[in-house]
Amino acid sequence: MVSIQSWRIRSPNPKHVEKLRATYGLSPLAALALASRDFAYESDECRFMNGDLSDLSPPEALPDCQDAVARIKAAISAQEKIRIFGDYDCDGICGTVLLVTLLRRRGASVDYRLPSRLLEGYGLNERVIEEAVRDDIRLLITVDCGVTAFEEVARANEAGISVIITDHHEPQAGLPDALAILNPKRADSDYPFRDLGGVAVAYQLARALSGEDLRRDLDLVALGLIADVVPMVGENRILARAGLNVMQRAPRQGFRSLFEKLEMDASEVDGDALAFQVAPRINAPGRLGEAQAMAELMLSTDQGRTDERAFEALEANDRRRDLQKQVVTSVQNRLDEDPMTAARSCIVMGNPDWHVGVLGPAASSLAEALRRPVILLGGDPQRDEGLKGSGRSVGHYSLFKALNSASDFVDAFGGHAQAVGLSLPKEHLFEFAETMHEDAKRHLRADDVLVPLDIASVVRLAWIDKCSVYEIEKMGPFGPENPRPLFMAEDVSIARARPVGKGQEHLLLELANCGLRAIGFGLSEQWVSLLKPNRVDLVFVPEINRWRGRDRVQLRIIDLRVANGRFNGQAVAQLRRRWRRLHELYPSSDMLKALYQYLFDESTAKMIEYKGADWEALCRRFDCSASGLRVALNIYSELGLLGLMHQGERPVWIKLSDAETEPDWDQAPTYRQGQRLRQRVRQAAEAVDSLSPKALVTALYGFELASEEPMEGGAADES
C-alpha cells in the first residue's frame, strides 16, 4: 500500500537559486534541489557540495579515543592477543572487518568473533567473555555494541581483560566500567557529529591508530552506514560518498564476487544498490544464524572462496525472504481475524514459532503497510518462557522512548527511534502490548502516518536532462535527513497512458511535447480513480534508466492529481481498496443468514476445521475468502452458537446448539465493528478533500489518533 501524502511545496528564493547556479555551476534543476536543503550557513552548504575527508572531525574528539589508541599500541608491541567482537548485522560486520584488516597490517595478534543471533542474541554475552578467558585474550574491542554490557565488562575486568567499546547506540543509565568507550551519544561527549554510524566510530578509532585516512577501506564504511539507515548527512555522508567512490573504482575481491552474482556493474553501484541489493544479502546469513561467512567474504582475497561465500549470501537471502513472507502473512491474517487488534495504534504480536532473525525486516514491511509502529516477537532461543524480537516505527514516533515507558515489562532493549530490539517474558506480553498501544495513541501524529511530500520546487519539464540528473545524483548518497529531491510539474499533457507490470498494477505515462516517459509503481489504480485525465500535476523523482548500456532520463512518479485540482486520487484509490477489503473480510447479514442456515442444519457436521477440503468447499459455496469465512465463524462464536477451540495453531469450531430462531447479528462485536468501518470508509470517500488528517487516518487504516493535530498543508496540499 502506498502511503497517503500531502503536498508540501517549497518556494526557493530565486536570488538564492541564481547564486547557487553561479557558485557551483549548477543547472536550474540541481540548484533548486540544493536550495531546498535549508542550510543554516553558507559554510554548511559548501561542505555539503564539496566536503571531503579533510572535513571529518579529529578522531581524538571521541571520548576515550586516546586511551583506546594507547592500549591497542601497547597490545601490539607486547604481542598480546586481541579479539574484535562485532554485531552480526552489516554495520557490525563491516566495522569488524575494518579493524581486523588494520590491526593485521600493523602486525597485531588479532582474531574476530561475531555472535549467533539465535543462540546468543545481540551484544556482549557471558559466553563471549568466557571464551576470551579460555583463549588468553588480553584486549577485547567491540564494534557496534557494548554500551549497555555492564555485567560482561565487569567479568572481563575481573579476568584481567581490557575492554574497548565502540558503539553508536543510545546509552542507558550510566556506562560500563570499560577501559574506553567511544560513543558520540555519550552524555559527556563533545564530538561534533552525534549521529555517527557504528562502522564510522570504528573507522575513527582505526584512523587515530594509523594516522591515515584509510581510503582503501572506505568501501566497508559506506556499506555499513547505508545498510544501517543512519542519517545520511554530515560525516556519515562524507564517508559514504568517499566509500562509494572506492567501491566503484576498486572494489575488494569479496564485493567483486557478489556484484558478479547479482549481475551488477561495479562502476554503477550507488547508494540504492547497496541499500536494496547488497546489504540485504550481507545481512541474511546473520539473520538466519551465523554471520561469520560474510566477514570471510570481505576479508578474503581468494576468488574461489569469495565466490563460494557470495553464493551463500544469495541463498541465505532467498531463505530469509521466504521466512519473512510467512511472518508477514501470519500477522496480516491475524489482523483480519481480530478487528480489535487491527484497531490498535501500535501492533504487538508474538509467536514462538517465528524465526527471530527475520522479525526486523518483517516489522519494517508491516509498519510501512499499516502506517503505525509494529513490534514482532518470536521464541527466545535462550529462554523457554521468553520472547525476543524487533520493532520498527513510522514518521518521527520514537519506539526507543516508548520502550522506556514500558520498561517494567521488558527484560532488555536497545536501538534508536526508528528500530529497536527487545526481549520480555511471555507472561508480560499482554501488559506490554497495552502499554505500547496507549503510548502510540497519545504520541503518534497525523504527520507520522500520512507522510507529507516535501517538494523541492515546481519545475519545467524542459529543464530535465541527463546533465541535471547527474548533478542531482552527486548530492547523494541519499537516506534519512538527505532524501532524494522531489519536484512537481504542473498541467502536464499526457500523450499515452497504459498499465504495465505482471499484475497491471504500475502506470506508464508518455508525456506530450517533451519526449519523456514517467513510471508510477503501484499507481495504476489511482489513475483509474482520477478518471484517466488528459492533463495532470505530477510529483516525481528524475532518474536515469540504464538498460543495455544506454542511459535514458525518466520520471519516477511519486504522486499525481488532475491538473490544477485538489482531488486526492490517491486517497480515493486507497479508500476504494479498503472498502473492497472490508467487504471481503466482514460478512453481510445475507451471507451470515445463508451460512447459518447451512451450518445449523441437522445433517451438517458438528465440527468445522480450519483449512482442508471441507473448508475450501465452504468458501466456494458462499463465495467468500478464507479470512471472511473465519470472521463469520467468529461472529457465531461471539453469539454463543459455536465454541472455538485450537488444535495447535489451527482453530476448530464446534456447534453448541441447533438454534431454531435466527440470531441478532448486531449482538456480535465483530459484526458491529465491520458495519462501523464500512460506514466510516463510505463517508470518507464522499468527502475526501474536506477530511481532517485524523479522520483520514481512521478511515484508511482503522486506528485512531488521540489528538486532532492538523498536518501542515492539510490532507490535500498547500499549493
Verbal overview:
This protein is α/β, with parallel strands linked by helices and 719 residues long. Helix 2 (28-35) packs parallel to helix 20 (466-473). The longest helix is centred in the middle third of the chain and has 35 residues, at 303-337.
Mean pLDDT value: 91
Q: Give a quick account of the main beta sheet: strands, pairing sense, barrel closure.
A: 5 strands, mixed, barrel
- What is Rg? 28 Å
Strand line-up of the largest beta sheet: 13-14-15-17-16
CATH topology of the domain at 55-250: inorganic pyrophosphatase (n-terminal core)
Strands, total number = 20
Instruction: Give the CATH class of the domain at 55-250.
Output: Alpha Beta
What is the general shape?
Answer: globular
Structural class based on helices, strands and sheet pairing? alpha/beta
Distance between the termini: 25 Å
Strand content: 15-25%
Summed up, what is this model?
It is built from 27 helices and 20 strands. By secondary structure, the protein is α/β, with parallel strands linked by helices.
What is the element layout, followed by pairings?
Elements: E1 7-9, H1 14-24, H2 28-35, H3 42-50, H4 65-77, E2 81-86, H5 90-105, E3 109-113, H6 126-134, E4 139-143, H7 150-158, E5 162-166, E6 180-182, H8 198-210, H9 218-227, H10 234-249, H11 253-261, H12 271-288, H13 292-299, H14 303-337, H15 339-342, E7 347-351, H16 359-370, E8 374-379, E9 386-392, H17 399-405, E10 412-415, E11 419-425, H18 429-443, H19 446-449, E12 453-458, H20 466-473, E13 486-500, E14 506-511, E15 517-520, H21 524-529, E16 535-547, E17 550-562, H22 569-585, H23 589-599, E18 607-609, H24 612-621, H25 626-638, E19 642-647, E20 650-655, H26 669-686, H27 693-701
Parallel strand pairs: 1-12, 2-3, 2-4, 4-5, 5-6, 7-8, 12-13, 15-17
Antiparallel strand pairs: 8-9, 9-11, 10-11, 13-14, 13-16, 14-15, 16-17, 18-20, 19-20
